[in-house]
Structures are given as C-alpha cells and as structure tokens.
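Marked as duplicate of an earlier ticket. Keeping the data here for the record.
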Amino acid sequence: MKMVVALLAAVLAAFAVSACGGGGAEPGAPRRATLVLDFQPNAVHTGIYAAQREGFYGDAGVDLRVQQPSASTDAPKLLEAGRAQFAILDIHDLGIARQRGLDVVGVMPIVERPLAAVIAGDRAAVRRPRDLAGRTVGVTGLPSDDAVLDSVLEADGLAPSQVHRVTIGFAAISSIASGRVDASTAFWNAEGVTLRRRGIPIRVFRVDRYGAPRYPELVLCTSSGTIRDDPGLVRSVVEATKRGYELTNGSPGQALDDLMAGASGLDRADQDAQLHALLAAGALRPTGFHNLRAWARWDVEHGVLARPPDIRRAFDTRFAG
C-alpha cells in the first residue's frame, strides 16, 4: 500500500511540473533572454530601450535583459556558449567571428547604413579626400578602419600611401581638436556630431559615399542553435525591436526619454544631437537586410576578411523581412 501511495504521489508531482511548463514556470510566463550591446548605450540603441521601456518585449512574451559590454565581454563567445541569446555586433565583427568558426547569425539590421567616415579637421583646407595628400591621418588600429581610409582615398583617386597614417586608438576627437592629425577615421554620428557641437569646422567623408556599399553597420545577432531550438523567441525579439525603432522614427522625443530612463550617465543634449543625425540619414529605419554580398566583397577587397562568408549561413533574413 505504501508503494502504491508513493507511486501515485510521484505521478501527481510529475503532472504538476508538466502543467507549469517545467522548471517551475507558470503557463504563459515571459521567456527570459539576454541581449549584449556592442558598446556603451548611446543613440543607436534608442529603439532597443524604447521597446523595453514601452513594454514591447513584454507584449511579445519576452523578459529581455539588456546587458552593457565590459572589457572581458566577447559577445560571439557568449552567444555560442548560451550565456546570451542575442547580441548587437558590428557587421565586420560578425564576419570575423564566423571566419574564426563561431556560430553567429545576423537576424535584423539595427543601423541600416555605414557609420564610418574620414573626418578632416579643417573644412577650408580639405574639400575632398584627395586634399589629404601629404597630410597626417589617424586610425584606431582596427582592420576595418584601414579599410575605410583606403576606400575613401581611392574613391577620389588618391593612393593610400600618399597620406601619413598614424595609430591614435579611439582618440579621434582630441586628436582632431588639438591638430595632432589633419583627419581621422571615426563615426560621423558620434565623433562627427561632437566635433561640430564644439565648433570645430570639420568636413566628413562617409565611406558609403566613397567606395563602400550601403551595408548595415550594426546587426542584431543570435546563434543558429537558438534559431533552431526557439525560432519563436527570435521572431518575438525581432518584432519587438522593430516596433522600438518604428517608435524612434515616429516619436524621437519619446524614444529618447526611454533611452535616458533606461541607461545612466548619458548627456541628453549629446544623445539628442546624435539621434537626430541618425534619423536625418535614414540610418534607423527597420527595412531589412540589403547589399550583404556587396559588403562581403568590399570587406575581402580591403583586407577585413580573408574570404567572403556564406551569406545564407551568416544571415537569416526570414525574421527581419
């Protein structure tokens, strides 16, 4: 009799667990997921914070944790290890990660056009890229920066060897403002906006106007394992994120409020200026992937990648439309 009672209790306990969805979760409870940003929160992430603060992820059944990167964070490895389900990656970093054999798949463009540029500190002296001949140009040391500089110069008929290239790390603003360099690779939406707000008479040469295709700069990524095991989660996160960026385009002030409320330590005036620069350039419109094969060719031609990735494996375009 005791054995029968024990067996009955075990069956009832198992039924209770299965009724709750396993792991003690209540039926219909939001699915938890982590999204790792590519950088500290800023205007390019406005749609993500808007989606979070306005409840769009919750509406889609997702309890999304947005994680800021740290010095030790390697987002592709976090995705592969299952410690994060989503990450924002620079498209060049996505290509490099796949080249190294990591399981990273782009599912939605976050920024629809390149943000990289060559910024000259004296717009009167430098009216076009070829005017940089014999001048000093700073680069961070990243391969993609050298690619940007080469592309901009070559598009205007100037050999890259005709400028004096120096590595300045991520000090474009101070290096241009102090006159240490005549120009530098930088982001037109960030350093470019800051330099203009400081009254420095810069001239900006955006790489997609000088040799590069209009590829998506930042991409929402996941792993093929997550796509295989939980495509509904991927679709929910993509759809909610798209809603966040649609709100950003339609009501930028409201979306900026959400960014400021969700991320600490930001200067509102700086982020407002950056956001309006992005919106004016049409960089935050969620329209889907474009020019991926052209991007891959450009990266190979300029030494960012050793070989083009398999676009069908590197990007799953079903979710973003």
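See parent ticket for discussion. The longest strand covers residues 105-111.
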